[in-house]
């Protein structure tokens, strides 16, 4: 993602204790060349004052929809047009819920609805609120619309509890927006979603993959500063802003797209649920229901990941193994057979996996296992990317 120099950032400050870090965030963004205007919610005013933001941003601070000093009294439209990025930090559970549902009861939410700018959220809240399914679904909804989610980090929370919910440090947020994280300068290709193999012009062989895990991985790689190409089968999701999206339909198209774009990538993360078989000869016209049975002849598709991993000049290769039984054993076998650097095993078909908001992952390499735990796909993707970032320079050769 290109740097922050000259970027217009509207910072929406939500009403949580992490708001005390927001003035520092303004400074960090400005240090990297961004121009910042601050919008405070009513809740934020309980934690920090407009005077602080005014002094640091050198600009007036916006509070109200009914501000008569702005163009035709319409601060929301003026700011919505001006912004390249709308950054919500801290993004409280309440603000996230309002944004997910399109509420427009104040200046912050109205301008978020009125803008075409990239929406970026840095959540901060109590760990139970973060783990609540309502928050999880709201975050997934925003991510599915293309919002970038930065954090939260896990650690000590203000209420003396520990867990996920800490806002990322201002310097980390500024780095992530500036493309300066642990994968800065790295090119990453991610495959995501299902493939659809045509039977005839209206029917296909598909699978239940929603694409959420792959999109979360792409989002986490972007947050870590990588340049991301996302080769995606058909999903209902908006791509994370900043990723280069290459939409495909079939396994064959996915193989071709990966082949065309893999050169110069240091990392390949294959999250797509690629069909293993495809109809040998899709019918030209819609198949009529004449016979009592219908036999489809299927042929093997190329194993995209194994082919990339077998190449002479290859990126660091990460696979996913969705299994219903003996998850870790099967994943280990795939790690060896496909000659991968790392494989993520996840159980599907019960309470986790395909189409679900949350997941459980174990990352396996030749030298051992790392349990990435259980959580939202976004949180697991962040942990996976952190693990890969640690290993990449040592293992990619
Ligand atoms: O062999 P299996 O399909 O279980 O392996 C899963 C891993 O291989 C995933 O990372 C998936 O994206 C990748 N794969 C592929 N091309 C295929 C089949 C699977 O890249 N044709």
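Sequence proposed for the structure above (397 residues):
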């Amino acid at each position: 993602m290109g740097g922050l120099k000259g970027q217009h950032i509207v910072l929406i400050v939500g009403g949580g204790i992490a708001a005390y870090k927001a003035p520092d965030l303004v400074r960090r963004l400005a240090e990297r060349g961004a121009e910042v205007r601050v919008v405070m919610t009513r809740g934020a005013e309980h934690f920090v004052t407009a005077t602080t933001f005014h002094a640091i941003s050198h600009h007036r601070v916006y509070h109200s929809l009914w501000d008569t000093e702005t163009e035709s009294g319409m601060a929301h439209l003026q700011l919505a047009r001006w912004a390249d990025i709308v950054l919500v930090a801290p993004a409280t559970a309440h603000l996230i819920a309002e944004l997910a549902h399109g509420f427009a009861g104040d200046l912050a939410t109205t301008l978020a609805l009125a803008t075409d700018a990239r929406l970026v959220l840095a959540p901060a809240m109590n760990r139970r609120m973060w783990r609540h399914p309502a928050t999880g679904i709201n975050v997934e909804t925003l991510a599915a619309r293309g919002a970038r989610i930065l954090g939260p980090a896990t650690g000590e929370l203000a209420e003396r509890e520990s867990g996920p919910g800490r806002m990322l440090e201002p310097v980390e947020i500024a780095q992530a927006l500036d493309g300066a994280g642990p994968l800065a300068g790295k090119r990453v290709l991610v495959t995501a979603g299902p493939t659809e193999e045509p039977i005839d012009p209206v029917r296909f062989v598909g699978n239940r993959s929603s694409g959420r895990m792959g999109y979360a991985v792409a989002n986490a790689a972007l947050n870590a500063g990588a340049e991301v190409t996302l080769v995606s089968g058909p999903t209902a999701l908006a791509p994370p802003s900043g990723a280069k999206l290459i939409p495909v339909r079939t396994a064959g198209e996915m193989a071709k797209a990966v082949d065309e774009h893999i050169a110069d990538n240091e990392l390949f993360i294959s999250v797509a649920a690629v069909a293993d078989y495809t109809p040998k000869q899709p019918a030209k016209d819609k198949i009529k229901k004449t016979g009592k049975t219908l036999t489809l002849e299927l042929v093997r598709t190329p194993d995209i990941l194994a082919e990339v991993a077998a190449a002479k000049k290859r990126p660091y290769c990460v696979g996913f193994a969705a299994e219903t039984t003996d998850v870790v054993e099967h994943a280990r076998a795939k790690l060896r057979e496909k000659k991968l650097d790392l494989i993520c095993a996840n159980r599907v078909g019960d309470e986790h996996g395909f189409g679900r908001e949350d997941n459980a992952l174990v990352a396996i390499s030749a030298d051992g296992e790392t349990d990435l735990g259980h959580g939202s796909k976004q949180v697991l993707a962040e942990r996976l990317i952190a693990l890969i970032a640690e290993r990449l320079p040592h293992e990619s050769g």
